[in-house]
């Protein structure tokens, strides 16, 4: 369609006006999902939302993506067997890190600048709009939902669903969601290591340190930051927060090192406890020097007096306003800079210690815009939501298992110290807890959504519903990324299905998470039917030779797998003997984890009744993480290694051999097939391409054979008219679990509104239908046709002289396209659209575009005679899809002659 003049402005000579840059004024940004917080979990949430076809805005408090993961935490906290459960987009992040270093697999130690580059890359590839240096000012609610948030820039963000990915839970608080902070009493949730903890655990001060300003003299008063006593007995509740610090990135490479000078306002009295700790024997632990690549460290707290700012400003952080948080963060920074300078330079520190620690400084190539200091304070804990499901110590220890898992945690239940107290006449730290968990444990979906009846469109993947001590395990950055991805998946389904976040279908959510490669349970999400003999079972497994348990490569059954260390000499064998309930035909499956270093010729022996031995060879470099069929065989009942067993050997192999699990499945196992939409909304083509909807068809194991899955079509949408023809079936090749099915809308000139396409799985003898068998896809018009459908009757829509783009049915001089552009009423005479001209000294044109018209193209055009029009030189063209709605063009930038101006609007790109 040709451009349409919206309004004419007489332009006089502008040579005397002051030129200014084009200014985008305060904006209203409306998307499907708005994510507040640009830390690691905010990034994975944003990328997942975009991958699921949703429009998304990412609001970032500072000027960097990645939070702590790009802010110094380069030595990833994983936990007990945690590596195997860091999957989905979290695993993708660490795999991208490895690729940056020229490595395969995943890498969990890295430089901050590399992590930030990976986060930026992921966001750029997903084409997510990022709004930096914006913090929350206000939140508006209606009908139990967040309708908009306003930031310090004046920008307004509107969305169907919001995700609070901040470390503090600021949006959660403003949305009126129940939350807590501090430490619960053990009695509240039946825990044992919550609340006040005066029993010595770790990071404790040496004995003998006097708590008084003048050592040994109580009359002189307590040292700064020392409390006389805790507020209650062990295990009782209080409001204290575990200490924060910066994860310093340091180096001892002189060419890349900048030493830390004495910070401004340094006061040695702030380090009196440090001096006394050294006098009492602390000599070798002042901060960690965990190595990351290229001669750098991740330097965290490491002793009784170290990087943690105990009894500092932590308890003030939660409710502080943004400006105060900047000041508090600076106090933390000054404390740590002063700590390093003191250890390296102060005369009260013995020369031997000063010399030993003098090699460490800040890398010149890190945090180059922040004096080489990390841009993210380690907010270990702040607000925690209180929802209908509270994660507790019982979850972490595996005695209580969440049935609606959205990811797993595996790190130690870890709390840093919360205060310093006087104990037996000495100053002691209080609050440190480090209790290992037995293995990975599920995290409940209900823990990231508010209580029923509270905010209906908010998900909280970081400040989730958990007690202080369980949060100490869950809060690790890899888990944050996992929960961020799951939160975005749930947000997308809440939008597609028109439900609250509390009512999202868990079967559908689970199916999508598994399809995205996330790990939800200890079984790894694999099929568990039949009789499975796992390498870790107490009975039924005989290991000969030297086998090593491992969990580094994902895809195993149970808690781990074993490998032979690559000896290749026939000394290792692993025999799996099932206990079969009855004689019959059983299909035998093997499972392993794949890697390039595995053997491609692993010998397998299947012993059958009567002494028959069936032999096979498997390639463990491929098809890892699935049950691979060895065929069907007749077995006797019972457990007899000589007449019913499977043995894996390492004779004559060309790589490492893996022994994980063997599965015996009686009869013919039918896969279960599910169908759901990963993006249920389609729209007719606009400039560029149609908005496609995507479905996933997924089968459970076995994956041995190719499978044809059939489906039927229904609904008001017509195949070949409203959408491209679909064949009615999808073929899943052998070894493949899922396939995507796309619905491609077709263009027409009709304003039909939204039509539905219902896709249902058809029954078939080759498979069983799962819980998800029917899905509805909505096919919408272009935004302009949607607008026309809502404004005109069916009779008016049939008459282009009334409802066509160029028509002006109310005769007010503004065409239908321009009424749509400005949010006007095509059937009521109205004033021209909002358009202002600002006078000298800054000549500027301001125009407002209605939110639903974001796909229109705009530019300012000029003419000397009102006949010939051309783009105004020096002014930008606003492209379709740009979310900006209030724009200001500086006319001082115009380069053409004086004359007339108009604002032109088009449905298609302007000719160049």
Structural class: alpha+beta
Number of strands: 51
Q: What gyration radius follows from the Cα positions, in whole Å?
A: 32 Å
Distance between the termini: 14 Å
Low-confidence stretches: 10-25
Please estimate the helix content.
10-25%
Basic shape = globular
Oligomer: single chain
Mean pLDDT across all amino acids: 90
Largest sheet geometry: 7 strands, mixed
Task: Describe the fold and architecture.
- This protein has 912 residues and is of the alpha+beta class.
- It is built from 17 helices and 51 strands.
- The strands form 15 sheets. Strands 3, 4, 5, 6, 7, 8 and 24 form a seven-stranded mixed β-sheet that branches. The chain has a five-stranded antiparallel β-sheet with strand order 26-29-34-31-32, with no helix packed on it.
- Strand 14 and strand 15 (296-298) form a beta hairpin.
- Helix 2 packs across helix 12 (477-497) and helix 12 (477-497) crosses helix 13 (506-515).
- The protein is globular and about 95 Å long.
- The chain starts with a strand and ends in a 6-residue tail after the last strand.
- Residues 10-25 have low confidence and may be disordered.
């Amino acid at each position: 369609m040709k451009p349409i003049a919206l309004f004419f402005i007489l332009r006089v000579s502008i040579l005397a006006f002051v030129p200014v840059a084009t200014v985008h004024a305060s904006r209203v940004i409306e998307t499907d999902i708005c994510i507040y917080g640009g830390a690691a979990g905010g990034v994975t949430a944003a990328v997942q939302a975009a991958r699921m076809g949703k429009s998304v805005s990412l609001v970032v408090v500072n000027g960097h993506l990645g939070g702590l993961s790009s802010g110094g935490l380069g030595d990833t906290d994983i936990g007990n067997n945690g590596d195997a459960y860091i999957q989905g987009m979290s695993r993708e992040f660490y795999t991208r890190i490895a690729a940056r270093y020229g490595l395969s697999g995943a890498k969990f130690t890295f430089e901050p600048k590399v992590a930030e580059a990976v986060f930026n890359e992921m966001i750029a590839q997903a084409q997510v709009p990022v709004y930096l240096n914006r913090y929350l000012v206000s939140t508006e609610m209606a009908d139990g939902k967040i309708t908009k948030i306003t930031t310090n820039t004046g920008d307004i963000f509107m969305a169907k669903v919001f995700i609070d990915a901040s470390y503090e839970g600021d949006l959660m608080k403003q949305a009126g969601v129940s939350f807590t902070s501090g430490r619960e009493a053990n009695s509240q949730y039946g825990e044992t290591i919550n609340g006040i903890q005066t029993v010595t655990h770790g990071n404790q001060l040496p004995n003998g340190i006097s708590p008084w300003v003048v050592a040994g003299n109580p009359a002189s008063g307590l040292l700064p930051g020392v409390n006389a006593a805790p507020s209650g007995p062990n295990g009782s509740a209080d409001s204290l927060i575990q200490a924060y610090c910066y994860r310093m990135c340091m180096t001892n490479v002189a060419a890349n090192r900048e030493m830390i000078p004495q910070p401004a306002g340094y006061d040695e009295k702030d380090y009196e406890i440090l001096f006394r700790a050294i006098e009492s024997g602390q000599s070798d632990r002042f901060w960690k020097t965990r190595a990351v690549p290229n001669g750098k460290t991740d330097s965290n707290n490491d002793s009784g007096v170290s990087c943690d700012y105990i009894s500092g400003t932590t308890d003030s952080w939660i409710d502080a306003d943004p400006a105060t948080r900047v000041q508090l963060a600076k106090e933390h920074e000054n404390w740590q800079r002063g700590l390093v300078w003191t250890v390296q330079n102060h005369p009260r520190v013995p020369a031997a210690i000063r010399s030993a620690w003098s090699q460490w400084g800040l890398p010149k190539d890190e945090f180059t815009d922040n004096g080489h200091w990390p841009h993210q304070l380690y907010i270990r804990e702040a607000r925690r939501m209180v929802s209908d499901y509270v994660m507790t110590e019982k979850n972490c220890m595996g005695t209580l298992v969440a049935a609606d898992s959205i990811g797993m945690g595996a790190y130690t239940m870890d709390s840093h110290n919360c205060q310093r107290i006087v104990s037996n006449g000495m100053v002691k730290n209080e609050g440190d807890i480090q209790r290992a968990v037995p293995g990975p444990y599920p995290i409940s979906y209900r823990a990231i959504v508010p209580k029923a009846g509270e905010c209906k469109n908010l998900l909280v993947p970081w400040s989730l519903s958990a007690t202080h001590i369980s949060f100490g395990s869950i809060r690790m950055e890899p888990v944050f990324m996992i929960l961020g991805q799951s939160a975005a998946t749930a947000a997308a389904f809440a939008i597609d299905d028109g439900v609250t976040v509390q009512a999202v279908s868990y079967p559908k959510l689970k199916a999508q998470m598994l399809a995205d490669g996330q790990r939800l349970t200890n079984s790894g999400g694999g099929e568990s039917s039949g009789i499975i003999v796992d390498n870790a079972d107490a009975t039924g497994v005989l290991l000969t030779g030297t086998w090593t348990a491992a969990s580094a490569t994902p895809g195993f059954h149970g808690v781990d797998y074993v490998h032979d260390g690559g000896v290749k000499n026939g000394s290792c064998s692993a025999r799996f003997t099932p206990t079969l309930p009855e004689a019959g035909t059983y299909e035998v499956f093997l499972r392993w984890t794949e890697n390039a270093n595995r053997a491609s010729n692993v010998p397998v022996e299947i012993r059958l009744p009567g002494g028959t031995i069936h032999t096979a060879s498997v390639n463990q470099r491929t098809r890892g993480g699935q049950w691979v069929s060895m065929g069907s065989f007749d077995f006797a009942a019972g457990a007899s290694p000589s007449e019913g067993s499977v043995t894996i050997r390492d004779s004559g192999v060309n790589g490492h051999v893996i022994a994980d699990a063997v599965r015996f499945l009686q009869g013919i196992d039918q896969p279960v097939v599910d169908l759901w939409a990963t993006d249920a909304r389609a729209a007719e083509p606009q400039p560029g391409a149609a908005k496609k909807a995507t479905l996933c068809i997924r089968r459970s194991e076995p994956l041995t054979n190719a499978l044809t899955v059939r489906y039927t079509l229904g609904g008001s949408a017509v195949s070949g008219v409203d959408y491209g023809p679909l064949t009615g079936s999808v073929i899943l090749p052998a070894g493949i679990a899922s396939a995507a099915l796309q619905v491609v809308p077709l263009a027409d000139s009709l304003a039909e509104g939204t039509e539905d396409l219902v896709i249902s799985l058809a029954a078939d003898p080759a498979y069983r239908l799962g819980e998800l068998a029917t899905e509805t896809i909505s096919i919408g018009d272009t935004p302009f046709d949607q607008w026309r459908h809502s404004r005109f009757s069916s009779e008016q829509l049939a008459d282009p002289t009334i409802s066509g783009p160029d028509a002006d049915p109310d005769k007010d001089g503004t065409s239908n396209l321009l009424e749509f552009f400005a949010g006007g009423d095509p059937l009521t005479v109205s004033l021209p659209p909002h358009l202002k001209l600002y006078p000298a000294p800054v000549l500027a044109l301001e125009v407002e575009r209605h939110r639903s018209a974001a796909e229109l193209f705009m530019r300012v055009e000029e003419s000397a005679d009102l006949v010939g029009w051309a783009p105004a030189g020096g002014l930008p063209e606003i492209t379709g899809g740009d979310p900006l709605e209030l724009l200001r063009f500086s006319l001082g930038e115009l380069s053409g002659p004086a004359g007339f101006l108009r604002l032109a609007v088009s449905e298609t790109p302007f000719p160049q």
